[in-house]
Amino acid sequence: TRSPQIPGPPPHPFVGHTFQVPIVKTWRYFEKLSLKYGVLRCSFMIVVCFNKLNAGPIVKLTLAGDDMIVLSNPSDAEELLGRRSHNYSSRRPLVYAGKYLSKNLRLVLLPYGEALKRQRAAFHQMVQPRGLRSVMTGYQTNSCQAVGGYEDMQDTVSLRLLMDLVTTPTDWSHHCARFSASLVFKLTYGQQLDDDGKDLASLEDILATLMKDFYPGAHLVDTFPILDRLPDFLAPWRAGAQRKHLMEAGLYTRLTSEVRTRMGSDLGLECFAARLWDQQEKMNITPEELAYIAGSAFTAGTDTTAGTIEWFLMAMVLYPSTMLKAQEEIDLFFSSDTIPGYSAMNDLPYCFALVKEVFRWAPVAPAGIPHCSDADDVYNGFTIRKGTMIIPCIWNMHHNEAEFPNSYTFDPERFLKSPNDSPNSLTEGHYGFGFGRWVSPSALNIATDFPCRRKCPGQYLAAKTIWIAIVRVLWAFNIEPCRDASGNVMNPDPDDCTSGTACKPNHFLMNLVPRSAAHVKTIMLGLEHM
Ligand code: HEM
C-alpha cells in the first residue's frame, strides 16, 4: 500500500514551490500553511487520517525536486530531530555559503559526520564555564550561586550597557549590538574590542553577509546545484564567495593566532580560543578549524543575543503593566543603590518567567535552522525521503494556541501557572534554541562524547547573558512609549521586523528614562570599581 501524502499546496510543474516560498518573513508563510493544511482545515479524509496517525500539522513543499517539510508541532520535532536525531542532524549542502564561502569549515553548515562531531565536541568544551554546574540556569537550583563561569564578564559588560543607555538612550539598538558583540568577543578572544572598532566592523560585516548568503533561496546555485558546473566566467558569484572566504578566514586566523601568542606570555589568558589551543591535539582539530570554531561563537551568538534584548524592549513598551510588575519584584530586593546580580536569580521568579516569555513571544530564529535527513524514514505512516529538508518552525510552535493560549500576547504568567510542573530552566518550556538529542552537561564526558546534535550549543551562555541584561535594564530604567503631537501613544508594531535567519525589530521609537538619579549614580560607581 502507498503511504499517505503529506499535505501541502499544489506544486508548479518542474519548479515545485520554488517561487512560492517567499524569502521575506518565510515563517509567516509557514504559519499560513500550517493553518491551511493543519488538522483543522484540511479535507475530511486527511482529518481522519491525521487523527488516526496522531500527527500534527506537517506540511510538505518541493523545491526544484527536493522535499521540504515544515514542522509546527514540538512533539513532531522532538521525535524526528530529537529521538531520531541520528537521521535528522545533517544540513543540506550549500554550494555558495558552505563550499565556497566557508570551505566546509563552518559548524552551523556542516553535514552530519566526523567533522561535525569534532567541531561540536570542541565547541562544547570551549563554552563550558570552569565550574560546570554554574551554567545551569534554573532559579530553583543553587547553581547560579556557584562561582566561576563567565559571570564576571557578563557583570562588567552589562554594567557598561546600562551606562551607555544612560548616556545616549536613543542609540539603544547600537548599544544592544555592542553589548552582545563585546561580550562574545571578550569571551572568545580574551580581549576588548579595538577602540577603533575595526574588528567589530569586520565581524559584523561577515555576519551580515553570512545571514543573507545562507538563507534558503538567497543563491540560485543552492536551489539548482547543477549551476556549480558552469565555468568561472559564467559563474561570477563563485569568485565573490571565494573573496569573502579569504577575508573572513584571514580575520578569524589572525584573532586566534594573537591568542596563541599571548598564551605564551605572562598575561595569563582565559578565553574560548585559549581553551581550544590547549585541547587542539586532543580534540584533533586543525588550526583552520580552530579559527572557524571560535569565529562561530561570534557569528552565532551576537545577533541572536542582541535581537532578543531588543524584543524585550519592545515588549515592555507594549505591556507597561508587565514592566511595573517585574520592577516591583526587583524593588523588593534591590534599592537604588544596589545593582541586581546573578545571586538574585532564585529570588526573582517573575523576572525569570519574563525572560522565558521573551524567548517565546519573539523567537529570534523564527524558522529555526533547517535540518536534513540522511536516509529514507517513515513517520506516522508518512514517508520522508533521504535528503528532505526539515524546517522546525519555532514561530508556529510558539503560537500554538493549545500550548500557549493567547499566544500573541506577551504574558510571563503563562510560565508561572503551575510552579510545581513548570520547567525551572531559562532554556526549557519554549523551543527558541532549536532541537536535537540533548545530554545534560553534567552527565557528559566532554572529552569524548558528541554532546548533542544540533540544538544551540550556546544556549546556557545566551540565556544567562540575556537574564542579566534584562533584569538590570528593568532595575535601572522605565521603558516608555513615545507620544505624537496630540499626546497619543505611538506603539511599535511587532510585525515590523527584519527578515533572515535571525529576526529582530526594525528601529522603533521609545523612551528609556532612568528610574532615579540615585540609580544612575550607582551605575557610575559600579563602573568605577570594575
Ligand atoms: C538568544 C540567543 C540564541 C538563540 C535564540 C539561539 C538559537 C539557536 C538555534 C534555533 C539554533 C539552531 C539549532 C538547530 O539546528 O535546531 C542555534 C544554533 C547554534 N547556535 Fe545558537 N542561539 C543563541 C545564542 C547563541 C550563542 C550565544 C552562541 C555561541 C556562543 C550560539 C551558538 C550556536 C551555534 C554554533 C549553532 C550551530 C549548531 C549546529 O549547527 O550544530 N548561539 N542557535
Give an overview in words.
Helix 12 crosses helix 13 (320-333). The longest helix is centred in the middle third of the chain and has 32 residues, at 287-318. Strand 1 (58-63) and strand 2 (66-71) form a beta hairpin. The chain has 17 helices and 9 strands. Helices cover 46% and strands 7% of the residues. By secondary structure, the protein is an alpha+beta fold. It has a 4-stranded mixed β-sheet. The protein has a 3-stranded antiparallel β-sheet with strand order 8-7-9. A two-stranded antiparallel ribbon has the order 4-5. The radius of gyration is 23 Å and the shape is globular. The chain has helices spanning 26-37, 44-53, 74-83, 95-101, 114-127, 151-167, 172-189, 198-213, 220-223, 236-263, 272-283, 287-318, 320-333, 349-361, 394-398, 459-476, 517-528, and strands at 58-63, 66-71, 371-372, 377-379, 382-384, 389-392, 477-483, 489-490, 510-514. The structure holds protoporphyrin IX containing FE. Protoporphyrin IX containing FE (HEM) binds next to helix 5, helix 12 and helix 16.
* Approximate shape: globular
Radius of gyration, in Å, reads 23 Å
Bound molecules: protoporphyrin IX containing FE
Beginning-to-end CA distance, first to last residue = 70 Å
**Biggest pleated-sheet summary:** 4 strands, mixed
Instruction: Note poorly predicted spans.
Output: 40-55, 131-148
Tally of helical runs: 17
Instruction: Give me the secondary-structure category.
Output: alpha+beta
Q: What percentage of amino acids are in beta strands?
A: 5-15%
Strand order of the largest sheet: 1-2-6-3
Question: Helical percent range?
Answer: 40-55%
Order of helices and strands: HHEEHHHHHHHHHHHHEEEEHHEEEH
